Amino acid sequence: MPLGRGRTADVYATDDGAWVLRRYRDGGDTAREAALMVRLAEAGYPVPAVRRAAGPDLVMERLRGPSLSEAVL
Q: What is the pTM of this model?
């Protein structure tokens, strides 16, 4: 189920709703981004848990909270 669309990627909810898939439209490799997120989590920063990174797809924990527009208001 589509959740959102950004400048470079589309975001989808997984069937169980606990994870999201971020798929970059221009392809590429998400391994570096995933590795950075894992290192940040290990250092105590609040980032989503990474489940899988393969090519343009990054599956990560779905966090609940306000959208950017809701937070600004």
A: 0.84
